[in-house]
Task: inverse folding
């Protein structure tokens, strides 16, 4: 379970302090697909960076299965961060590496031996439907294919949580739906918890069970997608 408890984050700026996140309480159960929706500047990325241990909250606590991210350092922080896979709007692939080498990169960093790396990357290529593109470079792929590489790479270390930070925002509607279907499949097959960060309501409505709506750093509404998006 992921728990944000009374979380606030202030940034120091030249004209004082800016409150990016204010008093956020969110609980995400294991295996759930949880959406966080809000316009640009709502505080979504700040929440993600805190969950990934890249920044500490000014107040409150974020924990994953009872472990407070802000208290971890060094080896234990790296181990905990391996449990979180991330995918991004602009894919963040390495352009000089092939598909299979991009996917195997996190395993290389984790010092997994080469034969094991390749075997794992090949499994992931099948899972995301990129058979035959192993030796292509990212520049030879469509947007949807690039994001499939991003998803496979995010899963390389067998995380328990996948964070999608606007991962479909650069894709056309059909490709967006394909990527969302893939996330749904992965969620079911691997019992992976997915945090879907987006400004696109329809993406949330399509695959999420629970949603929190953010505005100006606050959660202004939350609950099941059915309840929150229901029109009276
Ligand atoms: P979102 O991801 O929803 O677009 P962000 O979390 O990026 O929102 O930003 C929330 C607010 O915090 C915005 O006003 C943004 O300008 C501000 N902010 C984000 N990161 C920083 C930072 N490192 N320093 C100062 N202000 C920041
Ligand atoms: P996104 O909306 O995709 O998160 P942003 O353009 O908001 O992208 O932020 C990109 C980077 O710039 C982030 O690392 C964030 O911390 C930083 N940032 C955002 N707003 C500010 C700000 N007002 N001052 C300083 N850094 C900021």
Result:
């Amino acid at each position: 379970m992921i728990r944000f408890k009374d979380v606030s984050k202030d940034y120091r700026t030249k004209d004082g302090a800016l409150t990016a996140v204010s008093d956020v309480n969110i609980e995400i159960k294991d295996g759930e697909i949880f959406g966080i929706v809000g316009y640009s500047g709502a505080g979504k990325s700040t929440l993600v960076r805190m969950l990934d241990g890249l920044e500490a909250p000014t107040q409150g606590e974020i924990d994953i299965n009872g472990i407070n991210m802000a208290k971890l350092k060094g080896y234990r922080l790296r181990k905990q961060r391996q449990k979180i896979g991330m995918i991004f709007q602009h894919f963040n692939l390495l352009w000089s590496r092939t598909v299979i080498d991009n996917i195997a990169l996190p395993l290389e960093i984790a010092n997994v031996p080469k034969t094991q790396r390749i075997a794992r990357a090949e499994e992931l290529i099948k899972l995301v439907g990129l058979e035959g593109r192993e030796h292509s470079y990212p520049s030879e792929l469509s947007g949807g294919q690039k994001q499939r590489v991003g998803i496979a790479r995010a899963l390389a270390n067998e995380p328990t949580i996948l964070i999608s930070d606007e991962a479909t925002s650069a894709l056309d509607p059909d490709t967006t739906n394909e990527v969302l279907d893939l996330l749904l499949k992965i969620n079911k097959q691997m019992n992976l918890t997915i945090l879907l960060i987006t400004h696109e309501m329809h993406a949330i409505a399509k695959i999420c069970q629970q949603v929190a709506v953010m505005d100006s750093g606050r959660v202004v509404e939350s609950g099941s997608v059915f309840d929150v998006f229901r029109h009276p």
About this structure: The helical segments are 44-51, 74-81, 99-109, 114-128, 143-155, 173-190, 201-207, 225-229. The first strand starts at residue 2 and ends at 13. Strands lie at 2-13, 16-28, 33-37, 59-64, 67-68, 84-88, 161-165, 193-198, 210-215, 218-224. The chain has eight helices and ten strands.
